[in-house]
Design goal:
The chain is of the alpha+beta class and 148 residues long. It folds into 2 domains: 49 residues; 95 residues, Immunoglobulin-like. Strand 9 and strand 10 form a beta hairpin. It starts with a helix and ends with a strand. It is rod-shaped and about 105 Å long. It has a 5-stranded mixed β-sheet with strand order 6-8-2-1-11, with no helix packed on it. A 4-stranded antiparallel β-sheet has the order 5-4-9-10, with no helix packed on it. It has a two-stranded antiparallel sheet with strand order 3-7. It has 1 helix and 11 strands. InterPro entries: Flagellin_arc-type. It holds the Pfam family Flagellin_arch-type. This is Flagellin.
């Protein structure tokens, strides 16, 4: 084996080391991001399993066109009031009044607590509550108490 063969082998070996030193950090970063994504997915799945709500009261006052809902957090996950959505007759509602345990300043809804939502709406037939984790409860027709 001559010098040219040994030199060529050394150059190829150095090139391989440089290629590995460039590729390794990129692969390590990709693996870290993948592991973080898996952990986030698992945490979201756990939050979904631990989230549950129950509509304890749905009252429509026909004289005042006032719809009032009381929803109890029956799961073990703390929920955000601002991330809880309300749909009435399939229409997304905003600007309604909320209160957690009669406190309108609260933005978190702890397990075991009741969220009250009040809004003006004319003759609702279907009401749907959707939490931040995608858990939904629907009140339809005769489940909605109508008072005059």
């Amino acid at each position: 084996m001559g010098f040219s063969t040994s030199g060529a082998a050394a150059i190829l070996f150095i090139g391989l080391l440089i290629a590995v030193s460039i590729a390794y950090p990129a692969l390590e970063t990709a693996n870290d991001r993948r592991m973080t994504a898996i952990e986030d997915r698992d945490q979201r799945a756990l939050d979904v399993r631990n989230t549950d709500v129950a509509v304890t009261s749905a009252v429509y006052e026909a004289d005042a066109d006032e719809l009032t809902l009381e929803i109890r957090n029956t799961g073990s996950t703390t929920l955000s009031v601002t991330e809880t959505d309300l749909l009435v007759d399939g229409i997304y509602q905003s600007g309604y009044e909320t209160a957690v345990e009669a406190n309108t300043a609260r933005t978190l809804w702890q397990p075991g607590e009741t969220l009250t939502m009040s809004l003006t709406y004319d003759d609702p037939t279907r009401v749907k509550i959707v939490t931040e984790n995608g858990i939904a409860k629907t009140v339809i027709g005769d489940e909605l108490e109508v008072t005059n």
